[in-house]
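Following up on my earlier thread - several people asked me to post the actual chain instead of describing it. Fair enough. Here it is, all 282 residues.
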Amino acid sequence: MKLYQTYADRLTISANLSSILHRARDIKASGNEIEIAVRSMLSELLPLKYKISNGHIIDQDLNVSKQYDLIISEHIDHNPIAHFNDTTELFFYESIYLTGEIKATWNLKNLEDSMASIADLKNRLVRKGIDSKTLISGNQEVQLDVELTKNPIRNPLFNFAFAIKEDSDFHKFKNLYKLDHTLKFQPNITVILNRGIFVLVNKEDLQHNKLTVQLYPEYVTDLSSVEWKFIDCSQGGRNLAYLLFCISQHLNNVILEKPPYLKYSASLLDLDTESLLDLNEL
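Reply from S.P.:
Thanks for posting it. Predicted structure:
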């Protein structure tokens, strides 16, 4: 864990620099300091096939998401749609593995904003779900007679929240972690570097002293079988390692399809029959 503690210490230093910038009233630079540090860390630790960036997601109908502090996308087969001078990028929805919210301090407002962001993305943007029995080899899809995942689809979106420390009113926002219709809009996991981790666990296994984390809250069908728990741990290296392992687990298990470029181009160019001219009219 010493390796991960070294990375945790680096993030803590970035948070300290961020607070100096915040007191100097450079709010934008203050927020960027921690976000850039987390993205840089993940770029060092994850394989090159994944692009770690920030920006917006767009679907085939040209619905655009809010800006995400962190986006991990497919990096080998296709690039973002656009890259802007402030490092913000625009991504095809089909190319996205996960999104992350990165904050210096985790508080009630940040949790509410994170849930609203996840709800907006899942309610407004659309991409095709890949069947749980599908295997993709090159450009070919192969349908098997067995399910390859416990999830209904093979390309679920993973959303996490990360902060360096908790707000002084820590107890106020814990009640937002509820077992109701909002469960699908909760971050899959929430990691507070110097305090611990919010995870959804299997209640029956817990009674037998076994910790089984339900990594995809939105697919839980029996709410009575799970409950939110907080892993109380002040060792930043351990908390960071857990986040990295969860991200790696997701990346290794998920498969993505290539974006349907022609459909995107038709939407972007607003092509319809009225725009077609007979060659004799030119």
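Residues 19 and 25 are 10 Å apart (CA to CA). That should answer part of your original question.
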